[in-house]
Specification:
The complex is a heterodimer of chains A (280) and B (459). Chain A has helices spanning 25-30, 71-78, 113-125, 145-149, 170-180, 193-205, 239-242, 253-260, 264-279; strands at residues 7-14, 17-23, 36-40, 48-51, 54-56, 61-67, 87-92, 103-109, 129-136, 154-159, 166-167, 186-190, 210-213, 229-232, 235-238, 245-247. Helix content of chain A is 30%, strand content 30%. In chain A, the strands form 4 sheets. Chain A has a 7-stranded mixed beta sheet, sandwiched between helices. A 4-stranded antiparallel beta sheet of chain A has the order 1-2-6-5. A 3-stranded antiparallel beta sheet of chain A has the order 4-3-7. Chain A is of the alpha/beta class. In chain B, helix 4 (59-67) packs across helix 9 (113-127). Classes of the chains: A alpha/beta (280), B alpha/beta (459).
Chain lengths: 280, 459
């Protein structure tokens, strides 16, 4: 018998990037594009948010993709097929505003390219023409290109080192694309906060409305604690229950980035302890 | 003037010992002390203390049994009305309820009802006494969903389960207990005791499903399809902010975040547990309620050098229980009165708070003197700030259930019996009252459980 929160499948997508399928039938039943879950890897673990990448209502699983950057994601990455995750709760956050817009630009960076996938799929279902611009440090860590190509009408790739596609940041790629043709009805931006800040500037420059999916630090994920608060359009919002998607041009990006770094020292310390334990 | 024997003092651990750990501060009575205190009870026939109890515990009767050393009988009396006496004996504000009504309060010190309740409950737990006995399988095949496993939900679940209803509790977090687990610190209410008291739910075959967020994982309408009735006891866990500049600077916490990190996520054991917390050298708590005292005393234990409570009125108006204020003061928490934060300052993290000096004016709607700005502004250095000004009801269920009527403060509107604007949906506890106490929420739960029972009998 499959137990709740059991890992059904695990794939290594690139160095330090993993994809897992978890048995969570209630979450799969209600999941919508743009939502996330909170996951606790083991009983000592933190509650961390991860975007839902895919799910199956009939088979009862959800799919998550993550980059191993700290204690929680490394612990999660060490889990094997058949292991159970301590706790998963969701789906959380408001779903993406899926509608027919016309021509849509999806902008992704790094591990978050996977998070574009369900949004692309639902937007396609509504009949939108979809262009995706996805970036990565290098071609070896570029993920979800094939999955996005299977849905999107056009896909453009950038790598920081030029090993594939456009050489440079995805924000520069988007600038190039929009300089040639800026007739888009809406855009989505998902990636690391500094990348989203730059892409937000570019879409603003060309007058394209954009949603950004924020990756604030969270504890509860359900409006109880306020750890994830951000300033949007001058007022304080909770990423967990007011977001996670907000109008990108209204987000106070520097404040978000500052808050993301709040525990950097603690995280480094905890990571060192974990790594020394793993090596032993 | 009648001479009344003084109350048997309730033992506490010495300050310099207790501030170094998270173990419980109050030690509680031993048998001899409990019997001696119980002997002070006048056993008044009018039982004024019972009127002061939101859930109507027959106080003189259980005290009489203590006096006769019949602790098991005392326990049976207690749990007839209060299913979780080890918890209420610790966290109830008895001085505003039963103990305030005690005749002895007028002559000297009231009976220590809370301490006696706790004694009996702890004695029974140590003896391994089961609570079961009250199950009457009168009702069969009717199912009720309870949203939230905090104080109100616990009582609704237990009262209905005792009657034979099939109950499922849906809890959003990964541990049951609501505010008892994420909010109230270990040193005031050990989590082990919460777990043991909640065993009763299992004895009554109540199912608890963790990690289910009503309104997200499952909608209210889906619950109505599967259950005969739904009770919402989602609590008031949505923190209020001051809406002043600098509020999102790093190391400014809501009290809920600070306490959740420490209590639920065990950040006080970082890095054994993965959740970090910042405590600072000079920690400022804004507000002076019970939550503020909990946060201040937690900060002391985490090693903050100086902890200040900043309050816009004076010591006299502090809404926290007097006992908690005294505990906090003993442990080194200092207070600054008649100040109101108007801005947080710092580059990436908070460094200081701009405070407006206040003075007290005429009484406001709450009956307390209204604080008025004097125009004088001071700068108060602080490297961690914990905002404990209060809570709103959690907006998630109303937002995802548009037909559910709420008032302008976000509280779910009910009739006096706990019925909401949606048929077969009931609500109680802080999601209806705003900010109440554990026992008030329990009292509401009891009332609403009765309504649910009567409505389902009629339907």
């Amino acid at each position: 018998m499959v137990l709740e929160y059991e890992i059904l499948e695990k794939r290594v997508l690139a160095s330090r990037i993993k994809e897992i399928r978890i048995y969570a039938p209630l979450i799969a039943k209600s999941a919508k594009a743009g939502q996330f879950v909170i996951i606790i890897p083991d009983k000592y673990g933190e509650r961390i948010p991860l975007t839902l990448v895919d799910w199956s209502r009939s088979e009862g699983w959800i799919k998550l993709v993550f980059l191993e950057t700290g204690v929680s994601t490394i612990k999660l990455g060490l889990k094997r097929v058949g292991d159970r995750v301590y706790h998963v709760v969701g789906p959380l956050g408001n779903p993406s505003k899926i509608d027919y817009y016309g021509k849509v630009l999806l902008i992704g960076g790094g591990v978050a390219n996977a998070a574009l996938y369900p949004i692309a799929r639902e937007l396609k279902r509504k009949g939108n023409y979809i262009v995706a611009a996805i970036g990565a440090r290098s071609s070896s860590v570029l993920i979800y290109e094939d999955e996005l190509r299977s849905i999107c009408d056009e896909v453009y790739v950038s790598t920081d080192d030029g090993s594939k596609g456009f050489k440079g940041y995805v924000s520069q790629l988007v600038d190039e694309l929009l300089r040639k043709n800026s007739r888009y009805d809406i855009a989505w931006i998902i990636g690391p906060a500094p990348m989203m800040r730059e892409c937000s500037k570019v879409t603003k420059k060309y007058g394209i409305k954009a949603y950004a999916s924020l990756n604030s630090l969270m504890v509860c994920g359900m409006g109880m604690c306020g750890a994830c608060r951000v300033r949007v359009g001058g007022s304080v919002k909770f990423t967990c229950i007011d977001g996670p998607e907000f109008e990108a041009h209204e987000v106070e990006w520097d404040e978000l980035i500052n808050r993301l770094n709040m525990y950097r020292e603690d995280e480094r310390k905890a990571l060192q302890i974990l790594l020394s334990r793993i090596r032993r | 003037m009648v001479k009344v024997k003084p109350r048997v003092p309730i033992p506490k651990r010495p300050v310099d010992e207790r501030i170094r750990d998270f173990n419980e501060v109050i030690v509680g009575y031993d048998e001899r002390q409990a019997i001696e205190e119980a002997k002070r009870c006048l056993q008044c026939p009018s039982k004024p203390c019972v009127k002061g109890c939101p859930i109507g515990v027959d106080i003189p009767r259980f005290i009489k049994f203590i006096r006769n050393r019949e602790f098991e009988k005392a326990y049976r009396v207690l749990i007839e009305k209060c299913p979780i006496p080890a918890i209420t004996g610790r966290v109830c504000p008895q001085e505003k309820q039963c103990e305030r009504e005690c005749i002895l309060a007028k002559l000297g010190q009231p009976i220590a009802i809370g301490a006696l309740e706790r004694f009996v409950a702890d004695w029974a737990r140590e003896q391994g006494l089961e609570k079961i006995r009250h199950k009457e399988r009168r009702i069969r095949g009717r199912r009720v969903a309870v949203v939230g496993s905090g104080p109100s939900g616990i009582v609704v679940a237990l009262d209905l389960a005792r009657l034979g209803y099939e109950i499922t509790i849906f809890e959003a977090l990964h541990k049951p207990g609501g505010v008892l687990v994420y909010g109230i610190p270990e040193f005031r209410l050990p989590k082990r005791i919460v777990e043991e008291e909640l065993e009763y739910l299992k004895e009554l075959e109540v199912e608890i499903k963790l990690g289910i967020v009503a309104g997200r994982t499952i909608t209210l309408y889906q619950l109505l399809d599967e259950y005969d009735a739904v009770f919402i006891g989602a609590g008031a866990g949505h923190p209020r902010f001051l809406n002043i500049p600098g509020e999102n600077l790093n190391d400014i916490y809501s009290a809920n975040e600070f306490l959740t990190r420490v209590n639920l996520m065990k950040a006080y054991m970082f890095p054994t547990y993965d959740t970090p917390i910042h405590v600072g050298k000079r920690t400022a708590i804004i507000g002076a309620g019970n939550t503020a005292m909990d946060a201040a005393r937690t900060a002391i234990r985490l090693g903050a050098n100086e902890v200040y409570v900043l309050y816009r009125r004076t010591r006299k108006e502090m809404p926290a229980r007097r006992e908690e204020v005294i505990n906090a003061e003993e442990e080194g928490v200092k207070s600054v009165f008649l100040v109101q934060p108007i801005e947080f300052m710092g580059s990436s993290k908070v460094e200081s708070i701009k405070l407006m000096r206040m003075k007290l004016g005429e009484p406001d709607q709450t009956g307390r003197p209204k604080p008025i700005p004097t125009g004088e502004v001071i700068e108060f250095p602080a490297d961690v700030v914990i905002n404990a000004i209060g809570f709103h009801p959690n907006p998630l269920i109303p937002r995802t259930t548009p037909k559910l009527k709420t008032d302008n403060r976000g509280r779910i509107m009910t009739d006096q019996f706990g019925r909401t604007s949606i048929k077969r949906v009931y609500a109680g506890g802080d999601v209806v009252i705003g900010e109440g106490t554990v026992i008030e929420a329990m009292g509401q739960g009891r009332k609403v459980a009765k309504t649910i029972h009567l409505d389902l009998l009629r339907s």
